Amino acid sequence: MQKAMRLNDGHITYLGLLAKKDGTRRGCLSKKSSDNTKWHTKWFALLQNMLFYFESESSSRPSGLYLLEGCLCDRSPSPKPSLSAKECLEKQYYFTISFNHENQKALELRTEDVKDCEEWVAAITHASYRNLATEHETLMQKYLHLLQIVETEKTVAKQLRQQIEDGEIEIERLKSEIAGMLKDNEKIQSNPATVPSEDDSEIKKIKKVQSFLRGWMCRRKWKTIIQDYIRSPHAESMRKRNQVVFSMLEAEAEYVQQLHILVNNFLRPLRMAASSKKPPITHDDVSSIFLNSETIMFLHQIFYQGLKARIASWPTLVLADLFDILLPMLNIYQEFVRNHQYSLQILAHCKQNRDFDKLLKQYESKPDCEERTLETFLTYPMFQIPRYILTLHELLAHTPHEHVERNSLEYAKSKLEELSRIMHDEVSETENIRKNLAIERMIVEGCEILLDTSQTFVRQGSLIQVPMSEKGKITRGRLGSLSLKKEGERQCFLFSKHLIICTRGSGGKLHLTKNGVISLIDCTLIEDLESTDDEPKSDKNSQDLEHLDFKIVVEPKDSQSFTIILVASSRQEKSAWTSDISQCIDNIRCNGLMMNAFEDNSKVTVPQMIKSDASLYCDDVDIRFSKMMNSCKVLQIRYASVERLLERLTDLRFLSIDFLNTFLHSYRVFTTADVVLDKLIAIYKKPISAIPARSLELFFASSQNTKLLYGEPPKSPRASRKFSSPPPLALGKTSSPNRRRKLSLNIPIITGGKALDLAALTCSSNGYTSMYSAITPFSKNTLDINKLYVSSPITSKINDDAEGKSERTEEPYFAKQDISVREERDSDPPQNDEADAEASPTKSPSTPKSVKCKTSSDFSLFSYNNGMMMSSGREIENNRSALSAASAFAIATAGANEGTPTKEKYRRMSLASTGFPTDQRNGDKEFVIRRAATNRVLNVLRHWVSKHSQDFETNTQLKMNVICFLEEVMHDPELLTQERKAAANIIRTLTQEDPGDNQITLDDVLQMAEDGKAEPFENHSALEIAEQLTLLDHLVFKVIPYEEFFGQGWMKNDKNEKTPYIMTTTKHFNDVSNLIASEILHCEDVNTRVAVMEKWVAVADICRCLHNYNAVLEITSSLNRSAIFRLKKTWLKVSKQTKTVIDKLQKLVSSEGRFKNLREALKNCDPPCVPYLGMYLTDLAFIEEGTPNYTEDNLVNFSKMRMISHIIREIRQFQQTAYKIDHQFKASLYLLDSSNVMDEESMYEASLRIEPKVPN
């Protein structure tokens, strides 16, 4: 049983008596009983929110208590009277007190007076403590507000009293002046002759004094008003808004000038040239190159004039209607943007005409162009819309929400952002063409292969070319010599099809070396060079460089072969170069050979396996393609889901080098390293999943059926890694596993230009005649299978004599044997006659003599082919599809192998020919897929580890996972020797520390500078300071990880956490600039200041020679500070020669035209170099603004990732090459010492102290 609630009865009784005495409301009321039948008269007393009732007014103890907090009190209508009721209900008035919970019955009360009833209701309603607290809070706020008003009034009254006191003082002064004037007037009146003239002059003086007084008072009041407004936030916002508009006007003037040059210096002269008798260009090509250029110029001239008119009416600036004029014309911009790629392609095509190229160079040499090319001017409109978006962002940031222009500006920004997305895609797709044309311009001799728009730029950098001795060998003792580094330094440019090797001439121009244009399809790359015994012992320097060299063997079809040996500056750089070169070689060979292998009667040159896969060129819900092809002749991805990007990375049919580099740069934006690694592991364990189903149907199509199968691809347990043994391929009853294993690797390789035209094998009464007619065109071209592989040291030992010997030994062998299956084995037991009969299904007495007497060199394509039965044309037709499919896929996957033993050169066999059952051939195809999957996984890991080592340095768990996976791969018994070697090389790269450039680190420099005491500026020479400043700038610049360049983290609120290294670089820039300004301002003597300034200018000029453009900008920006720039006396004493150098340096690092002069200087210089980081951050901001990482369909914007990756590629080029500058402790300590550095305010005060302002 629940106990009753206990209350403090004594205190309640006390409160009841207090209510009876001092209650808010007291009196008799009728209370309805609990059974709703009777009314009882009680005496009620209300105290605060408690209602007591007593039996009578004289009772000393309350009978009950009602707590009124949270209740409602309302009048209620009178109940219907019964027929027997005698009392008059008109004199009775009711009201009820309702409580807020369900189980509590309402309290019904009754009075006999309406006024009494209303007073009781009002008193109970206002009895709530909550209402009292709310009223109290309101009163307190009013009280505080009144206190503020009183304080303000006191302040105003104090100011008024001060003004009155000042006025009284002024009045007393004026009274004294008036009294003096009156006395003078009395003296004047005593002399009547001078009264009229003196009186007028005195009145004028009085009026003048009064006028001055009124003007002084007005100016003082107006000055107070103006100063109050200047200090207000609204004025600050408007000031920044005006600055944005003024900078917009300057940028628009520059843009109109660029369009004017484009139209007047190029478009109109070329139109006239197209109308000449011998036109170097047609009118159609002129229209295609300059589509809408003239219209855009007229449009922006109108926009610029309107902007000038708006600024002329300053401070009232109305800009929204200007953008309203611009928005309807955006369709003209869209046409220009969509035509941009075609425009540059037409330009590259026209430049192949020497007359046009000569004429174009003449136009570009005009002074107005300032050494800028035509493609540069054609790209300027592509960057204008992003500039407008940035301007609108800044305008909206300083435009109040209630501003009349805000909605119009937001609408204009949204429309421009839509066009900006299209522009970013077009700029991304045409960037490769513009890069190729820019490099072609830099080469003095020209380079026509760069005018091929299908060339894709991969990388560039400085390498050392080692000269060959007379015997074709190098002396390793010269590798470390300084003379070789100076004489042999080469600028190398790697493209998807060619490698360009140049030397740097005067003025930054490039000159092609002998054999400087190398076609990659003719190349063999040898990474690990082995020194021979007859070479002298190398010195210490050559030992340091022993693993930095690699060899490229070039075997052109129409000239003598030659070898090029290049040396990188570090192991990481060598690994990056060799990875990219090998991947480009694989790409170019796979593309060309697959197209030839799939050539048929209709001359379709696209491989059927790729052509039949619509997912490679048709847009879908999870992928969008651009119009440009990548290095594998497949459409580039514009937008895609993460799953489709990972699928493209592991697609065994091709691997584009540009896609791979972009993916490895940007994958952190949309996924993680663990996801990528898991995908690679999954492809290794289940390689059959790496090929789309539609292509598998083609690949596994039976050789007895010319139509493709549309069902599910054949599923076999051999497609999974859990069965490590290779599939059986029975050639005879006694075939050993070793024999089957070797045969499964015998893949047909077709090289040397043209491939077998299977369509030429038409129906004939004699199958051999048809085959002979098809083979005849290839009799002079012997296949070189070694070209298909990244060669090992074994392949490098093959010479022409060995090849000739092998060919001579094959002749009698071929004469004795028919076209049959032959396998070289060292330990296989001899086969019986039955096995030989099964292994040679084409052995026939009807073989013509004309076929038998041909040497093996004449039949190199078929001499060791798995015997093809040519008994009828129908069987040849049936064999064509299977041969093409297997051959092409073998070609596509074989390129990833790092090498093949020499003895396998002449024993490649066809897996697709007749003579084997279908299930056996499919088993071998599955084995080929497993080999291709292994090569793909190792290839991607090799690129990842060699180019992005910091991923594994910062993530120890990722590094351990990769090592564990590779160790698991190496224990696979099915692994080839070259694959095992590749896995071991990757593990060695992960576990060994790269000695790198042996340069001191930034942490070491900072640690050494902690306890030292800096010497003064005059104790150091300009050369010492320039070298140490360059060393420090490069150490700060080189450690920036490239993931910080994604997402504009340096502009976010938590920038110090997201981009600590970029913020460190910014801080270092500001610290050096402050140090220079402080050093100048510390000098009290003007001559000393001049000497210090001239010394810093000399430091800047030396930094320019050292290619440290960051330091040049640090010094010039410090000289342009207001505290330094205002020192007129100091600048007057600076020599004219120094001022000329300053002007030259400022022009070099000027931000005009998106740092056009600085960009040109970077193109014309060789690393090491320290560029200005802010230039790249501005480019990244242009890309990030208005272009999200994901589309509305949640697809990754891979086109944007490609653009950012290209900028990062240029940054990393300068990060990787270190300076050969020795660290000098004293000079670096001075540069890092911040004890004497002043802040901005202190600098200006010091400037005013040494050269005070001159009063006007």
Task: Describe the protein.
The protein is α+β, with helices and mostly antiparallel strands and 1256 residues long. It has 44 helices and 17 strands. The strands form three sheets. A seven-stranded antiparallel sheet has the order 4-3-2-1-7-6-5, sandwiched between helices. A seven-stranded antiparallel sheet has the order 11-10-9-8-14-13-12. It is 54% helix and 9% strand. Among the domains are: 9-80 and 88-127, PH-domain like (Roll), CATH 2.30.29; 134-230, no CATH class; 241-442, Dbl homology (DH) domain (Dbl Homology Domain, Chain A, Up-down Bundle); 748-827 and 839-914, no CATH class; 1003-1169 and 1217-1247, Son of Sevenless (SoS) protein, Chain S, domain 2 (Orthogonal Bundle). Residues 1021-1253 form the Ras-GEF domain. Residues 240-426 form the DH domain. Residues 710-738, 797-854 are annotated as: Disordered. InterPro entries: DBL_dom_sf, DH_dom, GDS_CDC24_CS, PH-like_dom_sf, PH_domain, Ras-like_GEF, Ras-like_Gua-exchang_fac_N, Ras_G-nucl-exch_fac_CS.
What are the SSEs and their pairings?
Elements: H1 9-22, E1 25-32, E2 39-47, E3 50-54, E4 64-67, E5 72-76, E6 93-98, E7 107-111, H2 114-125, H3 129-189, H4 195-230, H5 233-274, H6 283-289, H7 293-312, H8 320-326, H9 330-350, H10 354-364, H11 374-397, H12 406-442, E8 457-466, H13 482-487, E9 489-495, E10 498-504, E11 510-519, E12 523-526, H14 540-544, E13 549-554, E14 562-567, H15 571-597, H16 608-611, E15 623-629, E16 635-640, H17 642-649, H18 657-670, H19 673-685, H20 693-699, H21 737-744, H22 767-775, H23 800-816, H24 833-839, H25 849-852, H26 873-894, H27 918-947, H28 949-954, H29 956-970, H30 977-991, H31 1002-1008, H32 1022-1038, H33 1055-1058, H34 1060-1081, H35 1086-1105, H36 1109-1119, H37 1122-1125, H38 1128-1133, H39 1136-1148, H40 1152-1163, H41 1173-1184, E17 1196-1197, H42 1198-1216, H43 1225-1232, H44 1240-1250
Antiparallel strand pairs: 1-2, 1-7, 2-3, 3-4, 5-6, 6-7, 8-9, 8-14, 9-10, 10-11, 12-13, 13-14, 15-16, 16-17
